[in-house]
UniProtKB/TrEMBL annotation:
Residue ranges annotated for the Nitrogenase/oxidoreductase component domain, each copy included: 20-431
Biological function: This protein may play a role in the biosynthesis of the prosthetic group of nitrogenase (FeMo cofactor).
PANTHER family: LIGHT-INDEPENDENT PROTOCHLOROPHYLLIDE REDUCTASE SUBUNIT B
Organism: Gluconacetobacter diazotrophicus (Acetobacter diazotrophicus)
Record protein name field: Nitrogenase iron-molybdenum cofactor biosynthesis protein NifN
Alphabetical UniProt keywords: Nitrogen fixation
CDD domains documented for this protein: Nitrogenase_NifN_1
């Protein structure tokens, strides 16, 4: 069991975590026809917008209520009302997801009451589904905001269970913020291959998968449809991924009565065997042959890759569920986690990470931990860790959010048999890339021709005596 370490620093020198409202905005972006709205200042929104655009390389419809000094003192209900009306008139969204910021939360505004009054006196907002999630920047990180937004959607949209609407083909899926659009797409394909119908909330595979739309649209295109989300009580089962999705999953279970299975991770052999067994039981079908083949390929990749993983020293910094999944993956392949840093302590599984200790801190804490451990062979974190990797003199594997200096982030798959196989090859190739063929320079000074003749002569003289 890992020891949880919480350094008491006055400031974060090299931040690791992204903000809670940004996590909520990412969840809202997984809804079809949506516009995320930050209730706060323009600065709160601009940083989140820049990071999201650079990560996905897509147009992001993130908006703000643009609170100024006067609104901060006198109240921002007017800003919220004006923003909602402007969005409805100019962008015609089907869904508006509001996320609070530290500015609103610290002031202590009754934003829930404000929103209720706004909807009562503005009938033109009646056709737009509006959801509000409390996501102050100072409480939690990316995972917490994502979970809060999903919970707010479930509470506001999902209809309670009724005995007349049960469907034994529908399966609800609550992915975590650490799943890429490619992960979610692969999970959909897997569920459909068993003859089941997945309803995924949120669904980034339709809205942020990097496609070129036929026509420009100011809102998200693709993602979960509100009509299907409202009918999640029809499902026979709910699958949630990551401990940060436990609260939304429990809420959905209490509203709908649908049983829930939570997977801490879907990277690795055992986790995917468990998923296959669940889907086979729910559908009454045998596991399709192609997945048996992919499992065999994963086993072969594990055999090929363990030579390159064994004994390697890994340093990881990430959000808790991503940290847990990657740490378990590396440890299962024979590597050793010498430094583990989590963005927040709001996770019950930090002590289950296969490391001596888990630090709740930033990338500076990660560097210090690597130095204290005597070095590492690989640094695993997002793009902000590239300077740390340079200072430590070790390669960087980019994971999580944000990744702004590489292409194809949305298409990187790490779940399922195939995703785990590809992850093994990705890491092993990083290690192989650090190896090089030896040259004479690697062994010191190369003797000149005259020096070689002298060595031969001296050797012959010694042999004669």
């Amino acid at each position: 069991m890992a020891t949880i370490v919480k350094p008491r620093k006055a400031a974060s020198v090299n931040p690791l975590k992204s903000s809670t409202p940004l996590g909520a905005a990412l969840a809202y972006l997984g809804i079809d026809g949506a516009v995320p709205l930050f209730h706060g200042s323009q600065g709160c929104t601009s940083f989140a917008l820049v990071l999201t655009v650079r990560h996905y390389k897509e147009a992001i419809p993130l908006q703000t209520t643009a609170m100024d000094e006067v609104a901060t003192i006198l109240g921002a209900a007017g800003n919220l009302e004006e923003a909602l009306l402007n969005l409805q008139r100019r962008m015609k969204p089907r869904f508006i997801g509001i996320a609070s910021t530290a500015l609103v939360e610290t002031r202590g505004e009754d934003y829930a009451g404000d929103l209720k009054l706004i909807l009562q006196r503005q009938p033109e907002l009646a056709d737009t589904r509006i959801v509000f999630a409390s996501t102050p920047d100072y409480a939690g990180a990316l995972e917490d905001g994502w979970a809060a937004a999903v919970s707010a959607i479930i509470e506001s949209v999902v209809a309670p269970w009724s005995p007349t609407v049960t469907s034994f083909q529908q399966v609800n899926v609550l992915p975590g913020v650490h799943q890429t659009p490619a992960d979610i797409e692969a999970l959909r394909d897997l569920i459909e291959s068993f003859g089941l119908y997945p309803v995924i909330l949120p669904d980034l595979s339709g809205s942020l998968d990097g496609h070129v739309a036929e026509n420009w649209c100011p809102t998200t295109q693709g993602g979960a449809r509100m009509e299907e989300v409202a009918q999640m009580a029809r499902a026979v089962h709910t699958i949630a991924i990551g401990e940060h999705m436990r609260a939304p999953a429990d809420l959905l279970g209490s509203v709908t009565g649908v049983p829930v299975t939570l997977f801490p991770t879907l990277t690795g052999l055992a986790a995917n065997d468990r998923l296959m067994a669940l889907l086979s039981r729910l559908s009454g079908r045998a596991v399709p042959g192609r997945y048996r083949r992919q499992r065999s390929q994963l086993l072969d990749a594990m055999l090929d890759g363990h030579f390159h993983f064994g004994g390697k020293r890994i340093a990881i910094a990430a959000d808790p569920d991503l940290l847990y999944g990657l740490s378990a993956f590396f440890a299962g392949m024979g590597a050793r986690i010498v430094a583990a840093v989590a963005s927040t302590s709001n996770a019950p599984n930090l002590d289950s990470i296969p490391a001596d200790s888990v630090i709740v801190g930033d990338l500076t804490d990660l560097e210090d931990a690597v130095h204290a451990a005597g070095g590492a062979d690989l640094l695993v974190t997002h793009s902000h860790g590239r300077q740390s990797a340079d200072r430590l003199g070790i390669p960087l594997m980019r994971v999580g959010f944000p990744i702004f200096d590489r292409l194809g982030t949305a298409h990187a798959q790490t779940i399922g048999y195939r995703g785990t196989r590809d992850l093994i090859f990705r890491v092993a190739n990083l290690f192989l890339g650090q190896m090089h063929e030896h040259t004479p320079d690697d062994f010191g000074h190369v003797p000149s021709a005259h020096t070689i003749e002298e060595i031969v002569h001296d050797s012959a003289s010694l042999a004669a005596h």
